[in-house]
Each structure stands twice: as structure tokens, then as C-alpha cells.
Amino acid sequence: DQQVKQNSPSLSVQEGRISILNCDYTNSMFDYFLWYKKYPAEGPTFLISISSIKDKNEDGRFTVFLNKSAKHLSLHIVPSQPGDSAVYFCAASGRDGGSQGNLIFGKGTKLSVKP
Amino acid sequence: NAGVTQTPKFRILKIGQSMTLQCAQDMNHNYMYWYRQDPGMGLKLIYYSVGAGITDKGEVPNGYNVSRSTTEDFPLRLELAAPSQTSVYFCASKVAGGPKFFGPGTRLTVL
């Protein structure tokens, strides 16, 4: 059973608009969440993370929102750029913040940003 | 800095063969990780290390071994390759929080 779900396999957005990528989780013990971006034939790139004590974290064009009661988080990209076209992975971990690497990954959402 | 480097980029093995996937980082990170990614799936942790001489199993360690004799290097050994080990393998390292720096990956096919 998937503990971290990214229910949209793909998302298409116009350049300059907002991209919203969603992630749901089932395990209430998850305490730390990360987003990664991955281009084809490359390794993942860490984007942004959030601890469960927060409901929002922002870094430039990227903002992650966490709704603990709904067990839902989302990544907002504003404004979207063609270079953001990639697969985005949501990952969750316990209180160690992922230090032991035992992240549970979603299957990813492929974002396409059209010029 | 070269970051996290992995060799080889591609490899085809026959069933029962063995090989070592190399991983090195030049950022002096204590924490290093090995993940595998199967098609259409997220990454799964194979092994991790919190420093030279210290390693531990992750979620899917069967069929693999690791060693960490130096801070820089974290090789992954496959013994008796099986078709189920066909995957893309990523090495990663970090300073704080979750894995932050990933290598470019090794695409392994076992036939």
C-alpha cells in the first residue's frame, strides 16, 4: 500500500502561470517532507523541504504548503518556466528528518511548462 | 567541486555476474546513501552510511553489499546479479536533513 501518493502522473501548465503539484500521505508518523525535481537521465535535485511544525515554507519561486489534518502537501511554482519541466517527487520521513535516508517517495508527477 | 559522481553510467550484466557501482563525493559529507529507482516508481533506499566504517541497511538491501572505508567513497556491490536488480541506481549525500545531492545515476540491466 502506497504511503505517499502523487495522484496526478502529469500536469501541463502555461509559462508564467502557477504550477500546483499535490501529494497525499497516509502515515501520521511522517514528520518531514521533501520535494525533488528530476530531469531525464539525471539524478534528483533537492528543491525544498518542510517540517510538520510548519504549514508553509518558501524558497524563491517555490512554496510548499502542508496540511497535517488532511495529510496533504502541495508544491507551488510561481511563475512557471519552461526549465521547470521535469518529474517532481514528493518524499516523507519520520522525525529524523530523513537523516537515515529512509524516505518514502511518491511515484512522481511529470510537469510540462509550455512556452 | 564535482559533487557526487557515479561510474559506470550504463552496464549490462548477465544473470549471476557480479559488479561494483562506484560513488564518490568531494564535499566531505558524512552521510551517504544508495537508492534504486524502478520504472514508474519512486526511489527506494538500499543502504546508507553515517561516516567512514559505519553502514546500515535500508528498505531493500537484499542482494547488495556496501563498504565505506573513506569519507569520499561509498561503493555498492552486487553479487549474483538477478533480473530483479534491473534498475537505475542513485548515490546521494547530505550535510543536514534528507539527502540533498544526488549523482547522475547508473542504469543497470541484468539479462
| Oligomeric state of shown chains | heterodimer
The main sheet of chain B comes to: 7 strands, mixed
Termini Cα gap of chain B? 36 Å
Specify the helix fraction band of chain A.
under 10%
Report the total helices of chain A. Answer: 0
Query: Mean pLDDT of chain B, rounded to whole units?
Result: 94
The structural class of chain B is mainly beta
- Taken in chain order, the helices and strands of chain B follow as EEEEEEEEEEE
Strand content of chain B: over 45%
Write down the overall mean pLDDT of chain A: 94
Q: Give the uncertain stretches of chain B in residue-range form.
A: none
Please tell me how large the radius of gyration of chain A is: 13 Å
Task: Describe the secondary structure blueprint for this structure.
The complex is a heterodimer of chains A (115) and B (111).
Chain A: E1 4-5, E2 10-14, E3 19-25, E4 32-38, E5 45-51, E6 56-59, E7 62-67, E8 72-77, E9 86-93, E10 104-105, E11 109-114
Parallel strand pairs in A: 2-11
Antiparallel strand pairs in A: 1-3, 3-8, 4-5, 4-9, 6-7, 7-8, 9-10, 9-11
Chain B: E1 4-7, E2 10-13, E3 19-25, E4 31-37, E5 43-51, E6 54-57, E7 64-66, E8 76-78, E9 87-94, E10 101-102, E11 106-110
Parallel strand pairs in B: 2-11
Antiparallel strand pairs in B: 1-3, 3-8, 4-5, 4-9, 5-6, 7-8, 9-10, 9-11
